[in-house]
Amino acid sequence: xxxxxxxxxxxxxxxxxxxxxxxxxxxxxxxLYWYRQSLGQGLEFLxxxxxxxxxxxxxxxxxxxxxxxxxxxxxxLTIQRTQQEDSAVYLCASSTPRDRGSIAKNIQYFGAGTxxxxx
Amino acid sequence: xxxVKQNSPSLSVQEGRISILNCDYTNSMFDYFLWYxxxxxxxxTFLISISSIKDKNEDGRFTVFLNKSAKHLSxxxxxxxxxxxxxxxxxxxxxxxxxxxxxxxGTHLIIQP
Lengths: 119, 113
Known about the structure:
The complex is a heterodimer of chains A (119) and B (113). With 119 residues, chain A is mainly β.
């Protein structure tokens, strides 16, 4: 497709269950980002991939959160043993790479998100 | 510890007038700033950006101003149109924006007819 695609669009789960969220970036975009937006909050950075590697995992809130990207394309964000505070909209974005240290445009294009509700 | 702050949760402006959305930041390492617009049930869409080597960037009805000494930026929309009603997020990055963005909490702009 033309844009960033995320699935599912909505996910309701029970506390303690594991969930997997999927992101399909724009074709040709090598950089991929995961954010989450809790109710009334701004977007919180979770993790960033350049190709298949994740140079920056600093935003993952706990070891229950993990993400992988294979083939330089699709990424999955996994939350194990979900808790009620994990309820949020999880957003994925992709961009084309720019040289780090150069002041240049790096526009991140976002998907519509996955709304996760943990009961 | 919020590094990007949008102190106005909402703003109401009459159609045709100027909308001014404000954003403050605390991290001196930020060198690239962006504004995103978000409609309900959609992802944020890029609006306009500015690098720290500039103090103004203009794109049609949208202008972003950056005051580095005050660590403040603003987005001006003129004239405001009904379709501009949305939540606007200010975002910042260091290293030219190659890493994750730091977002403010957003300002809900309402354009009144």
